[in-house]
Amino acid sequence: MKQAFIDIKNLKLSPLNVRKHGDKDGKDLVPSIKANGVIQSLLVRKNCEGYEVLAGQRRYNAALAVAKEQDIEPLPCLILEEGDDAAAIEASLAENIARLPMDELDQFEAFRQLSKQGRSIDDIASAFGVTDRLVKQRLALADLHPPILKAYREREDIGAGDLRLLTMATKKQQRAWWKLAQSKEEYPPFGHRLKSWLFDGDAIPVSNALFDIDSYKGAITSDLFGDEQYFSDSAKFWEHQSRAIAELAADYKDDGWPVIIHDVGQRWYKWDCVQISKEEGGEIHITCAANGEVSIHEGYLDEKLYRKRQKAEGQGDEAVQVTRPELTKPMQNYLGLHRHAAVRKELLDHQGVALRLMVAQVIASSHADSQHTQKDETTASLKSNKAEAPFKAERAEVRALLGLTGHDTQTLIRTKDEWERGLDPQDIFAKLRELDDDTVLRILTFVMAEILPSNGRFVEILGRLFATDMKDYWTPDDVFFDLFKDKEAINAALKDCAGERVADGNVSATAKVQKGVIQACLSGARKDGNKDWQPAYMSFPMGSYTQRGGIEAVKYWEDAKALFEAA
Predict the structure, then answer these.
(1) Own/partner long-range contacts of 495-500 (Cβ < 8 Å, ≥24 apart)
(2) Predicted local confidence at residue 518, as pLDDT
(3) Main-chain phi, psi angles of 79, to 5 degrees
(4) Start-to-end CA span in the chain (Å)
(5) Per residue in 69-123, pLDDT tens?
(6) Quick check: 506 pLDDT over 70?
(7) Where does the pLDDT of residue 169 fall: very low under 50, low under 70, confident under 90, or very high at 90 and above?
(8) How far apart (Å, rounded) are the C-alpha atoms in residues 338 and 340?
């Protein structure tokens, strides 16, 4: 005969069950089983569909009734083998179970006394005809803070479920919980809140891990009153889980799927999406619950994007952007202005280029650029760009050469209102006649730099030709990180800055956390990153971190590179 825990779905009554009359439903056992589970083992034997119950009909029927209202643990069973005497075993169990105290604390006292006498768990279980697990559950109460045990015995608002949860607490946690229970100003947590309190947030079951448990070096807490174990160190869990999620996402990407990894606990609803195939543009959405559970949603696309694409196809418009852009418009504007500032300053050292560019701009009827943005934060950030000061200094000198020092303006190229205030083109022309060719060429170069359009294709072309290094002018600031929002791109940037291991270890962390890691690398607070890191967006030509496109500056260079790569 051997002992096992068997799911109630795999049990059924045997037609040979000895109880044919009297109380067969076991309704009086329901309250006890709800509180304590099935204590005495059922007597079963194997059949073709699972196991049939030979003895324990009332316990089985009561457990069925409980299972209709709540989850129930697998039932303790003794499996008969060939040659076992079922009647003798049942009689022995009935005799032994009668000696078992009914209150779980009384059971604990009885088992503890036997344990002190040197009896093993197997010996104690055999003496009372119960399972080893039940003995372990009762002996777990020995680790409880004595006042908690006393309060439970005296029924001071501590339920059996809370008592069982507290067996998973450390001594320090138990004392802290009891202190809250005694406080007149604070209240101790109960039920689900107690589990969250014990595990510093949502308890993370071991069964939710995607990784090999052997690789986890932290503590694992076992729930003797349930079948689950829990990770004690949530930070270590998420480090391992994030790497597993990163590997999972990489496999999907290798298979040609666009993958979106949502923040832990972030809400994502299928009904906001349309389910379509990979070939039709469907995406993989990976969601992570706070308790570590990861769900894969295959072949979904945001309904708004889907409708937009449907409309574009109906109109025959293939140019409509139907994927989620890597960078928002404000971010692209921010990057464009900083890059523009750097390139136009370097244009000051390339007079021959400026002359030819001026001719091209005049032919194309270009107009002056005022570096306009609707974001005050971007305007403030632009002032810190190291290219701005020398450019403004050159503007002041050029204005002096033209005799314009008495006019208060932010640009040399005038607006319509400034012309109406008295500045006349013929006055400037007359002044230019007094200057030598080199000086005129210097002024022409500055004029070309000032009318150079920001966020335009010539910024990309000239930055490539000049091999402009943005590190000389700009470092990632708070405005950049505030505007940097795409989760996939942020994780790729983190990999670029701190390496694959750090990026994979944070793949399920929030965008804010991942950007914080990059900032810590830049400040030197972390030693495992590149403190001189620059995003791919600041290279020439501009790079990106995803394959989704939607970045205008990238497209500018792609359209122009065939003309300038040889140069």
Answers:
(1) 496/533, 496/535, 496/536, 496/545, 497/521, 497/522, 497/529, 497/530, 497/533, 498/526, 498/528, 498/529, 498/530, 499/528, 499/529
(2) 95
(3) -95, 120
(4) 86
(5) 888 889 988 888 776 666 665 555 555 555 565 566 677 777 777 777 777 877 7
(6) yes
(7) confident
(8) 5
Q: What is the mean pLDDT of residues 475-497?
A: 94
Strands (DSSP E) contained in 281-368 are: 283-288, 294-302
Q: Which amino acid would we find at residue 56?
A: G
Handedness of CA 498, 502, 506, 507 (dihedral sign): positive
Q: Which residue has the higher pLDDT, 129 or 92?
A: 129
CB atoms within 10 A of CB 202: 18
Position 540 confidence tier, pLDDT thresholds 50, 70, 90: very high
pLDDT for residue 94 = 53
Show the CA angle centred on residue 550, arms to residues 549 and 551, nearest 5°: 95
Question: What residues does 286 pair with on adjacent strands?
Answer: 261, 296
The CA distance from 214 to 235, in Å, is 16
Mean pLDDT of 251-262: 92
Taking Cα atoms as reference points, which of 534, 508, 442, 563 lies closest to residue 210?
508
| Amino acid identity for residue 178 in this structure | W
Q: Shortest CA distance to 301 belongs to which of 321, 286, 281?
A: 281
Position 249 confidence tier, pLDDT thresholds 50, 70, 90? very high
Nearest to 460 by CA among 354, 345, 538: 538
Distance CA 463, CA 436 (A): 30
Domain boundaries defined on the chain: 2-98, 144-198, 244-315, 329-472
Rounded Cα distance between 303 and 28, Å, is 54
| Amino acid of residue 227 | D
Q: How far apart are CA 44 and CA 53, in angstroms?
A: 4
Q: Which of 344, 346, 553 is nearest to 457 (CA)?
A: 553
Residue 312 buriedness (CB in 10 A; 0-12 / 13-18 / 19+): middle
Tokens of 4: 């096992």
Q: Mutual orientation of helices 351-363 and 457-466 as an angle, nearest 10°? A: 160
pLDDT surpassing 50 at residue 319: no
Tell me the mean pLDDT in the region 32-36. Answer: 79
pLDDT in the model for residue 227:
58
Give percent of the chain with pLDDT exceeding 70.
82
Q: Which amino acid is at 27?
A: K
Tokens of 292: 């570590």
CA distance 235 to 233: 6
Of 9-18, 339-348, 392-401, the poorest mean pLDDT is in 9-18
CA distances, 268 to each of 265, 328, 550 (Å) = 9, 21, 24
Helix axis angle for 552-564 and 329-347, nearest 10°, is: 40
Q: Give exposure, 95-111, as e/b (b: 16+ Cβ within 10 Å).
A: ebeeebeeebbebbebb
CATH class of the domain defined by 2-98:
alpha beta
